[in-house]
Amino acid sequence: MLTALDAQLDGLARRRIDLAPRRYGLLTACDGGLLEVSGLSVPIGAQCRIGHPGADGRAALGAEVIGFRNGNTLMMLLGDPVLLRPGARVRPEGRPGMLPVGEAFLGRAVDGEGLPIDGGEPIRAQAQWPSGGVRAGALDRSPVRQSFDTGVRALNALTTFGVGQRIGIVAGSGVGKSVLLDMVAHGAQAEIVIVGLIGERAREVSDFVERHMAGEKRGRSVVVAVPADHAPNLRIRGALLAASLAEYFRSQGRRVLLIMDSLTRVAHAAREIALLLGEPGAARGYPPSALATITKIVERAGNSAASGGSVTGLYTVLADGDNQDDPVVDTARSILDGHVVLSRDLAQRGQYPAIDIAASLSRVMTDITTPAHQTLARQFRALVASYEANRDLVMMGAYRSGADPVLDRAIMMHDALSAFLAQPAAEIVPLAPSIAALGALLGDGGAAAS
Ligand SMILES: Nc1ncnc2c1ncn2[C@@H]1O[C@H](COP(=O)(O)OP(=O)(O)OP(=O)(O)O)[C@@H](O)[C@H]1O
Ligand SMILES: [Mg+2]
């Protein structure tokens, strides 16, 4: 019996005894998710543990420093406040402001703290990355020069995106944002795909992990998932971890696709924290720092001239109540280099992905496509816009053909145009065939692709 314990005793005997003094703070107040700790001097962004691991083996609670006031440190819990008691000890841990990154994350699904949620073994991160990113000079950002293959025909042909571009998918709830992101995550040409599922449903997270973490593409993906019921600072951390992983791989010269579902939920989390700290709400209750948070996250994508790597960013933006003037929509639109608008009308008519092509735009398309291709894309838009503007007239039979040649052509080609925009979720259409199909549809004799 005693020999069975020998190995453990040996291990304990070999362990170095750490007699260095330790600093810890004391929990003095907890109200509405905000903790006040006295006697601690740690920077904002530092992680701490509160209390001792319980006798039942439950780990101590995690918390993050979000500010300080009157000599006290203000912290936010990373979990539930259950079992928190006054006077509990608060110990700092880890390097403040640094997040674990590295190749070990490839093929894994993790939470906002970088811990695995896929049931696999612990991740041994080889490197650390500043959570706020490494700010490069504006001139280190090389321009977008190469087209980016999304695997979705309508996007490839009509709003061609570039490597290193930042794109928003803007739509109301339940119009198909997540499904479209899923299609791009599956079909896009990228060496590494980092997916941040922030503030979404836990069921969607498990579906996503199941679908994308199997098969041969597994080794190129990382999923960072923080569902809606997690603390707001954990949601922000998840978004920062996804962005940091993308930046790390870019610094290694890789072509990264960073997908974030959803940017709006990141803004909501930032709003919760800012309001808790007493910042006044401005536009629709969003304090300025909440909108600044999403601007900073979006700005982290782009091409790096130094490493030759790139981060192409794809972010979903929820247009609350289909309102396109929402402050998050406005901020995202102004900072992004392109947006895809999904329309509830089209979705209700059963056209998926429900891309409203007239309202969607890629700001770099003219730099990366041939003039012939641009002409065709413009023609396509004009036809769709003409049909949509006169749809009611046409449906009522009030339009007499011959009055408007563009509308005549649009009516004649309507089914073909809708079929071009639609694509089953499991299908991948690469860039060249997408452009060729556009040429064939509008009859250019193959000039667009050349
Ligand atoms: N390409 C598609 N093919 C068939 N059905 C689709 C497609 N895209 C979306 N749908 C339908 O629309 C529903 C909602 O889609 P999705 O979850 O992508 O919406 P969402 O915009 O992400 O919603 P939320 O804002 O609530 O997250 C899906 O459950 C599905 O029924
Ligand atoms: Mg969704």
Description:
The protein is an alpha/beta fold and 450 residues long. It contains 14 helices and 20 strands. The strands form four sheets. Strands 8, 10, 13, 14, 15, 16, 17, 18, 19 and 20 form a ten-stranded mixed beta sheet that branches. The protein has a six-stranded antiparallel beta barrel with strand order 1-2-5-4-3-6. A two-stranded antiparallel sheet has the order 7-9. A hairpin with a 2-residue loop joins strand 1 and strand 2. The longest helix is centred in the middle third of the chain and has 20 residues. The chain starts with a helix and ends in an 8-residue tail after the last helix. The model has no long low-confidence stretch (mean pLDDT 87). Bound molecules: adenosine-5'-triphosphate (ATP) and magnesium ion. The site of magnesium ion (MG) has 4 residues, from helix 3.
Give a brief description:
This protein is of the alpha/beta class and 450 residues long. The chain is 35% helix and 22% strand.
Count of individual helical segments: 14
Small-molecule binders: adenosine-5'-triphosphate, magnesium ion
What is the CA-based Rg, rounded? 26 Å
Alpha-carbon distance between the termini?
A: 79 Å
For the sheet with most strands, the description reads:
10 strands, mixed
According to DSSP, the number of beta strands is 20
Binned strand content: 15-25%
Helix percentage: 25-40%
Average of pLDDT: 87
Category from helices, strands and their pairing? alpha/beta
Q: Which of globular, elongated, flat, extended, rod-shaped describes the shape?
A: elongated
Poorly predicted ranges: none
